[in-house]
Amino acid sequence: xxxxxxxxxxIKAGRVEDAIADGEKFKKLLAAAGAQNVRTxxxxxxxxxxTVLSFEAADQTALGKVSDTFLADPAAIEAMREMGGADGWxxxxxxxxxxxx
Length: 101
Fold this sequence. Notes:
The protein is α+β, with helices and mostly antiparallel strands. The protein has three helices and four strands. The protein has a four-stranded antiparallel beta sheet. It starts with a strand and ends with a strand.
């Protein structure tokens, strides 16, 4: 049963290009951690503009392995710190784990 993870991030004014560039960085890091169907999307229907980063795994065990591998990668931790830090492009974010039914 497919499971996944999605993060919706609000972008600071003038930082859309930074968010898009980081989306590409996160896609590579997640794919290296074993995530499937990794994608980033730009939501332009609200202010502030938001991004969605999502990925899938075959089941909950595989999702746990992706998460463990990703969070053990110093480059992933640094990317998250840069994104959400005082000088980062993200105002706020929410995350959801989902399961296809």
